[in-house]
Design brief:
The chain contains four helices and five strands. With 221 residues, it is an alpha+beta fold. It has one domain. Keywords: Membrane, Transmembrane, Transmembrane helix.
Length: 221
């Protein structure tokens, strides 16, 4: 009987040691999983923060080009065009309110997103913004809103900048308003004058040269 009791005690001690080792291993695995989860969460937050900051920076850079002060004369505007300045501003000047670029209006046929939205991609290394090269992708979507019978003045322009890194994506939306000067350019040529090049005017659109356009930022979110 004594021998049997001793064997039972030895078996109980071994079983207890195994249980303790299992508990220690489970605790170690739990700590490892928690550490990985915290590291992964911190990485996601860092990526999201970086995407947000760069999307804001790119939106502000576009704002600086779009909201340039109004040109004082047509000749001043023409000189800036010939010098290659403000390509986005001139793209808008020669394409907004043209049949080649329909306005956005969900209530009108032929003016939904598939017709009205223009998409552009930017190579992160070419963005010209510090830190942009760390992103996986940058895209810009632009559309302008209107309705049948509306006037040019007050036209809303929407620009969405999206930055991506890993699984994180951030979009910053800026809304602008078109301002048409109350006074026309007195030095503007007639409608038969030459138009801008394909870089800013790919469809060869003609514009009312005497009209003075400018844009103002309404909001950003």
């Amino acid at each position: 009987m004594k021998v049997n009791i001793r064997k039972q005690k030895d078996g109980s001690a071994l079983l207890g040691a195994i249980i303790i080792m299992a508990v220690v291993m489970l605790l170690s695995l739990s700590l490892l999983m928690i550490s990985y989860s915290l590291f992964h969460t911190a990485g996601k937050r860092q990526d999201a923060s970086q995407c947000r900051e760069l999307a804001q920076s790119l939106s502000k850079a576009l704002e600086e080009e779009i909201t340039i002060p109004p040109f004082q004369s047509y000749q001043e505007q023409e000189a800036a065009l010939n010098e290659g300045k403000y390509p986005l501003w001139f793209y808008l000047r020669y394409n907004v309110w043209q049949s080649s670029w329909p306005y956005y209006n969900t209530e009108e046929r032929g003016h939904t997103a598939s017709y009205a939205c223009r998409y552009f991609t930017i190579t992160p290394s070419d963005a010209g913004i510090e830190g942009a090269e760390l992103l996986d992708g940058i895209s810009v979507m632009i559309y302008w809103e209107s309705e049948s019978g509306a006037e040019e003045a007050g036209t809303p322009l929407v620009i969405q900048v999206t930055c991506e890194k890993g699984r994180q994506k951030t979009t910053v939306t800026s809304t602008y308003e078109l301002i048409v000067g109350s006074t026309d350019y007195t030095d503007a040529p007639g409608p038969d004058a030459g138009t801008a090049g394909a870089e800013v005017n790919p469809n060869g659109n003609s514009i009312e040269n005497e009209k003075a356009w400018s844009w103002s930022l309404n909001m950003r979110e």
